[in-house]
Amino acid sequence: MSVAGLPKNEANVLRGHEGAVLAARFNGDGNYCLSCGKDRTIRLWNPHRGIHIKTYKLYGREVRDVHVTPDNSKLCSCGGDRQVFYWDVSTGRVIRKFRGHDSEVNAVKFNEYASVVVSAGYDRSLRAWDCRSHGTEPIQIIDTFSDSVMSVCLTKSEILAGSVDGTVRTFDIRIGRELSDDLGQPVNCISMSNDANCILASCLDSTLRLLDRSTGELLQEYKGLTSKYFSGSKRSLKSYKMDCCLTNTDAHVTSGSDDGFIFFWDLVDSSVVSSFKAHASVIFYAKNGGTTFSRSTCCCNQYMLIVTIQNQGVKVSSEALRTYDPDPKALSARQTGE
User: Fold this and answer.
1) Rounded distance, CA 299 to CA 248, Å?
2) Which letter does DSSP use for residue 247 in this model?
3) Cα 282 to the chain's mean position, in Å?
4) Number of neighbours of residue 69 by Cβ within 10 angstroms
5) Which DSSP helix (H) or strand (E) runs through 275?
6) pLDDT at 225
7) Pairwise CA distance, residues 271 & 252, whole Å
8) Averaged pLDDT for residues 241-254
9) What is the spatial distance between Cα 147 and Cα 167, in angstroms, rounded to a whole number?
10) Which of 146, 149, 240, 245 is most enclosed, with most CB atoms within 10 A?
């Protein structure tokens, strides 16, 4: 993907949440997305047409993360209720509630076959849940972390997790091996490259780090949230929960900033190649890992970037998702069904 092809034009604003939006996730083919937030709901959207399709609601507290199966038939979610919810997408019915975490749950992911859900919690543990059985207890608990687990990724045989204790850990389920890469800074988000060879970690020292998965070697660091790009006012990721990801071609790295800007870096030379203001300069606070974090969410597919930024204070809150498209003509064609 060239720099000219990076998302920059606002395509839609998805309105409907009655509180701050905490996460947005595309489905497998990128035609739909799910969002969740402080209003204790999960919402299904067609982001290309700007249409709200369905609302899922059963939570007593905020919903922090959501993930959908490859066939789009089931979804899992987590949040302040300390449970993992397993849903039927079409009916909106909760199939099962998985209980076992001792505190808030920060992240969830299905495995490739949608038979297992892995959750990451404030209680410093990862827990795996069997979706095919009728049990509600975890089938595996990994509790070797020394602080809150913020983010999780899965491969066919491995679980990868980032923690506030400063580590990115890889657990090989087949042979029972754990590998730990100590980054020396709290890790609040990890994201895998599309070729699965690298892991991108967002840290609280205003730096994103790219690691080689096979060796643990630090391949590149992505910085630049300084006065150089913000007319004399320094911006950073310090003390804030910011998602990060790579574009679909793995050519660029993207992350949000605490003032509503979105940044794109060149994967190889780590230079900032694009940035734009997506939301107002306001942050919503959530407590994770003994530290106060705010959250910025970015998720990409081949066509579109979805951005959510949470706000600070009682009077103002980010209750909408903004979508960005690199090509207005392509967006127009999709909206008219051509």
Assistant:
1) 10
2) -
3) 19
4) 20
5) strand 272-277
6) 61
7) 10
8) 86
9) 10
10) 149
Q: Which residue has the tokens 């003390």?
A: 239
SS3 labels along 140-187: EEECCCCCCEEEEEECCCEEEEEECCCEEEEEECCCCEEEEEECCCCE
Residue 278 has pLDDT above 70, yes or no: yes
The tokens for 51 are 């249409």
Q: What's the DSSP call for residue 121?
A: E
Of 23 and 85, the structure prediction assigns the larger pLDDT to: 85
Residue 316: count other Cβ atoms within 10 Å of its Cβ. 12
pLDDT of 195 above 80 = yes
Question: Under a CB-based contact definition with an 8 Å cutoff, are residues 166 and 184 in contact?
Answer: yes
Please report which helix (H) or strand (E) contains residue 333, including its range.
Answer: helix 328-335
User: How high is the pLDDT of residue 297?
Assistant: 57
Beta pairing class for 126-130 and 140-142: antiparallel
Going 49 to 54 to 56 to 62, the CA torsion angle's sign is positive
H helix or E strand, kind and range, residue 334:
helix 328-335
User: CB of 333 within 8 A of CB of 228?
Assistant: no
Can you give the length of the chain in residues?
338
Q: 337 vs 7, 23, 119, 323, CA distance in Å?
A: 21, 28, 38, 18
Alpha carbons 176 and 142: distance in angstroms, whole number: 11
Token pair recorded at residue 275: 């940035």
pLDDT at position 14, please? 87
CA 300 from centroid of its chain's CA atoms: 10
Structure tokens at 325: 């498209």
Q: Phi and psi of 3, rounded to 5°?
A: -60, -35
**Of the candidates 196, 279, 289, which has an alpha carbon nearest to the alpha carbon of residue 241?**
289
Rounded-to-integer distance, Cα 61 and Cα 159, Å: 27
